[in-house]
C-alpha cells in the first residue's frame, strides 16, 4: 500500500507523523514540499508512507498526523486498510 497525506497553504512545511498497525511493515516514508504557485511563500506538503500489509491488518487504521509550529492543534486523517486475498 502507498498512502498519501497532504497539507496545503502552509509556511513552513508541517511535520508528518504516521501511525501504522502492529506487524505492518513500513517500507518507506517520504515528504515533498512544493510552492502553491510561482514565487509563492506557501507550500503544499505531501507525505507518502509505503507499507506491506497482510490479512492480519485488514480493517485496521493508518493514521496521518500533521503538526505545524504556528498552530496549537494537529490535523489528523485516518485511512482503513482493506486486504483482499484468496
Short description:
By secondary structure, this protein is mainly beta.
Describe it.
It is a single chain. The chain has 86 residues and is mainly beta. Helix content is 0%, strand content 57%. The protein has strands spanning 2-10, 15-19, 25-35, 43-52, 61-67, 74-80. The strands form two sheets. Strands 1-4-3 form a three-stranded antiparallel β-sheet, with no helix packed on it. The chain has a three-stranded antiparallel β-sheet with strand order 2-5-6, with no helix packed on it. Strand 5 and strand 6 (74-80) form a beta hairpin. The protein is elongated, with a radius of gyration of 15 Å. The chain starts with a strand and ends in a 6-residue tail after the last strand.
Distance between the termini: 18 Å
Give the proportion of residues in helices: under 10%
Q: Report the total helices.
A: 0
Largest sheet: spatial strand order: 1-4-3
Uncertain ranges: none
Biggest sheet architecture: 3 strands, antiparallel
Mean pLDDT comes to: 91
- Proportion of beta-strand residues: over 45%
Q: Globular, elongated, flat, extended or rod-shaped: what is the shape?
A: elongated
Annotation, overall tally of beta strands: 6
Assign the structural class, choosing from mainly alpha, mainly beta, alpha/beta, alpha+beta, or little secondary structure.
mainly beta
| Series of secondary-structure elements, N-terminal to C-terminal | EEEEEE
Taking Cα atoms only, what radius of gyration do you get, to the nearest Å? 15 Å
Amino acid at each position: 500500500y502507498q498512502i498519501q497525506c497532504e497539507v496545503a497553504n502552509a509556511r513552513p512545511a508541517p511535520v508528518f507523523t504516521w501511525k501504522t498497525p502492529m506487524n505492518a511493515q513500513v517500507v518507506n516514508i517520504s515528504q515533498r514540499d512544493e510552492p502553491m504557485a510561482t514565487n509563492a511563500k506557501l507550500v503544499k506538503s505531501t507525505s507518502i508512507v509505503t507499507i506491506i500489509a497482510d490479512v492480519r491488518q485488514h480493517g485496521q487504521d493508518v493514521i496521518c498526523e500533521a503538526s505545524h509550529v504556528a498552530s496549537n492543534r494537529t490535523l489528523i486523517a485516518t485511512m482503513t486498510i482493506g486486504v483482499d486475498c484468496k
